[in-house]
Specification:
The chain has seven helices and 13 strands. By secondary structure, the chain is of the alpha+beta class. It has a twelve-stranded antiparallel barrel with strand order 1-2-3-4-5-6-7-8-10-11-12-13.
Length: 357
């Protein structure tokens, strides 16, 4: 009897946790569940809930990452989409700043005619009408239609009175040509005199003019000076045409029958102020290769003329004008003029008319 009492006392004195380790929690939950329906779960002796806890609640640091540790990439259901009004972050683009050429900037290749275009006969109509008949038709019809015609024109460039000089001198400067596009007969005349004085002389030129390009003609021929003094003849070689900036240029060299070599260069330019009002600057230079005492010329640059003419075209073929011109003899020529009592420098007011037909 004493033995049974000692065993029971020993069992009661053993620690509680040791017995709790053998406690069946499943049986305890099954027995206590109906009694706690709708109420907070009971806690065991160490403060844990008798029910299974949510994983996110079980770990207080869930969703946080340790410093320096990289999280595994997760699938983003919105990848590739952007929120309206919010621009995506810029990424480094190796082709940034480059733009593909637009279709309008691409020019089609330029090529010559295909070989087939040059493989046929030169005159296809010869195969139908005969070479002889077509050759006559081309020379009689197509030639004149495409530049083979002849034409003519007469210019009175300057017909003017020079006021302010003794005797009121006048000048007539005219040109005329007849021919085609390539070859022409060109006639030039310049006459000087005075209304209250004597006739000073006339310079006549008869030239063959041949086109050496779209802008200039080569001119060769003869010149005759006729006047109160001794008449002279010259060989002429020069060019006449349109220089850049619409400057009309006439340059020629003259070899006299006495062996004297002289030259003259004329340049003028029409500056259209209105459709009918035109200002024309004009300059002329004269040169001599040697002294010519009988003509009062020294060697080198002998004289210069520079003037302005303002004309009004009533019609294109008729234009009266007013102007002013300065004339100066230079070098040895000026000395010869002073030696005979002549003023080497002259300034004149011009009144004249320009016409053509």
């Amino acid at each position: 009897m004493k033995m049974h009492v000692l065993l029971a006392a020993a069992a009661a004195a053993m620690p509680g946790p040791a017995l709790a380790q053998d406690h069946d929690h499943g049986a305890h939950e099954a027995q206590t569940a109906p009694q706690n329906d709708g109420q907070e779960p009971e806690q065991d002796a160490i403060g844990h809930s008798a029910h299974a806890q949510d994983p996110a609640e079980a770990d207080p640091h869930a969703g946080h990452s340790m410093p320096g540790a990289e999280r595994a990439p997760e699938a983003d259901p919105h990848a590739g989409h952007s929120t309206p009004g919010i621009e995506p972050a810029q990424e480094t683009d190796p082709h940034a700043g480059h733009r593909a050429a637009s279709a309008s900037s691409v020019q089609p290749p330029v090529a010559g005619p295909p070989p087939e275009a040059l493989s046929g006969p030169e005159f296809a109509a010869d195969a139908f009408y005969g070479e002889t008949a077509m050759s006559l038709a081309r020379s009689a019809e197509l030639g004149p239609m495409h530049g083979g015609t002849t034409a003519y024109r007469v210019f009175i460039e300057r017909f003017e009175a020079r006021l302010g000089e003794g005797g009121d001198p006048y000048l007539l400067d005219s040109q005329a040509w007849y021919g085609g596009d390539i070859d022409k007969l060109w006639l030039k005349m310049e006459a000087e005199g005075a209304f209250e004085g004597d006739f000073e002389g006339t310079e006549l030129q008869a030239l063959w003019s041949h086109a050496i390009g779209p802008w200039f003609d080569l001119q060769t021929g003869l010149r005759f000076d006729v006047g109160p003094g001794e008449d002279r003849g010259y060989l002429v070689a020069g060019v006449q045409g349109l220089a850049p900036y619409w400057i009309e240029l006439d340059a020629a060299a003259f070899l006299s029958d006495g062996g004297d070599l002289t030259a003259a260069i004329e340049a003028e330019h029409d500056m259209r102020i209105t459709q009918q009002l035109i200002l024309q600057p004009r300059a002329e230079l004269s040169l001599a290769a040697q002294e010519i005492p009988e003509r009062g010329l020294g060697a080198g640059l002998t004289d210069i003329e520079a003037g302005l003419r303002l004309r009004y075209e009533i019609v294109p073929q008729l234009a009266p004008y007013l102007g002013v011109e300065y004339t100066a003899k230079l070098g040895e020529t000026a000395k010869r003029a002073r030696s005979i009592g002549e003023d080497p420098n002259r300034l004149a007011v011009l009144v004249g008319v320009r016409t053509w037909f």
